[in-house]
Amino acid sequence: xxxxxxxxxxxxxxxxxxxxxxxxxxxxxxxxxxxxxxxxxxxxxxxxxxxxxxxxxxxxxxxxxxxxxxxxxxxxxxxxxxxxxxxxxxxxxxxxxxxxxxxxxxxxxxxxxxxxxxxxxxxxxxxxxxxxxxxxxxxxxxxxxxxxxxxxxxxxxxxxxxxxxxx
Length: 167
Known about the structure:
Layout: E1 7-12, H1 18-29, E2 33-35, H2 36-40, E3 41-42, E4 46-47, H3 50-61, E5 66-69, H4 74-83, E6 86-90, H5 94-108, H6 125-133, H7 138-144, H8 147-150, E7 153-156, H9 159-166
Parallel strand pairs: 1-5, 1-6, 2-5, 6-7
Antiparallel strand pairs: 3-4
C-alpha cells in the first residue's frame, strides 16, 4: 500500500461506499475513523448544523492520526484539507453510486445503519438525482483543484481501484 500518511480524508458522492472503504482502511492502517454521518446527525435525521460539525472536526483534526470520511461541511474544508496528508476521492460512476444508494435504502429503511441510530433510510427521487448527477461534489471539486491540494488527492474511479488500494 502506498504511503497515505496518518491524517486521511475520504470524500465522494453519497452512497459511493466511503464509510465501508474507510472502516476497512482504518483496520488496515490502525488509524481511528470518524464517520461524518454519526458526527452530524442526531436520531430522527436532526442535523446539528455546519458550525457545530466544523467545531467537532477541529477537535478531531488536532489529534495526530485520523481518517475522516464523508461530506465535509464548507466551514471545515480548508483547515481539514490543509491538515490532511492524503485526500482519497471515491469518484465512481453515477450508476455505481445510484445502485448503492438504492441498496442502502432497501437494507436500512427499517433497521438504520449502526452510525445513524434512530434514523432509518428514506428514499428520495430528489436525492437519487443528486447522487446520479454528482451534484453534491460540485463545490468539493472546486476546492480540490486548488494547487495546494492537488498533490494530496488520490482519485479512485471504481470499486476495483479501491479494493486494490486496500489489498
